[in-house]
Specification:
The protein is of the alpha/beta class and about 190 residues long. Strands 2-3-4-1-5-6-8-7 form an eight-stranded mixed sheet. It is globular, with a radius of gyration of 16 Å. The C terminus is likely disordered.
């Protein structure tokens, strides 16, 4: 998945989002976490430029509803995240996007979406990423199903190759899960 395809997939998720939703983003440096946020924020009506909050820690944007974009990469402990006012960031009137969310997993609510973005190991596909979605809670499985339908149609429309077939795979064997729904990989 290219950066543009990553933006399309995240934009396809935007119509399903509601205030109070939390998305945890994982992946190596430069894997595409901020690119994912860019597509999502644009689809939610944010007009300003979306950048990584690595040094500022928090960026807030106003679109269809408030978006709080947090990057906890530079924080060394859960206590630093709590000192940042993490509980207040779980605002029921905003969507919360957390880069390096796996570092604060114990603080996340029971229901959230885990998105993992990894660079492909295919050396010929330098710009290719694999995005894995893990719904934590039944409502996220429904949201992902809707996102998947929209994303497939948009990705097919932009593809130069006719009939590329499904890009999303149900991948329950990727790792053990907690019965929170299917795992999707692209």
């Amino acid at each position: 998945m290219s950066p543009e395809e990553t933006r399309i997939v995240s934009a396809s998720l935007a119509p399903t989002l509601l205030p109070g939703d939390v998305i945890s983003l994982a992946g190596d440096l430069g894997a595409g976490k901020t690119t994912f946020v860019q597509g999502l924020a644009a689809a939610l009506g944010v007009e300003e430029r979306i950048t990584s909050p690595t040094f500022t820690l928090i960026h807030e944007y106003l679109g269809r509803f408030p978006i709080v974009h947090v990057d906890v990469y530079r924080l060394d402990s859960i206590q630093e995240v709590l000192d940042l006012g993490f509980e207040e960031l779980l605002d029921p009137s905003a969507v919360l996007l957390i880069e390096w969310g796996e570092a604060v997993k114990p603080l996340l609510p029971r229901r959230y979406l885990e998105v993992s973005i990894r660079r492909s190991i295919d050396v010929e596909a330098d710009d290719h990423r694999v995005v894995t979605f893990r719904p934590r809670g039944p409502e996220w499985a429904h949201k992902l199903a809707a996102m998947r339908t929209t994303a497939e149609a948009l990705l097919d429309a932009m593809s130069e190759v006719e009939g590329t077939g499904p890009r999303f795979l149900d991948a329950p064997d990727l790792e053990a899960r907690d019965d929170s729904g299917p795992i999707y990989g692209t």
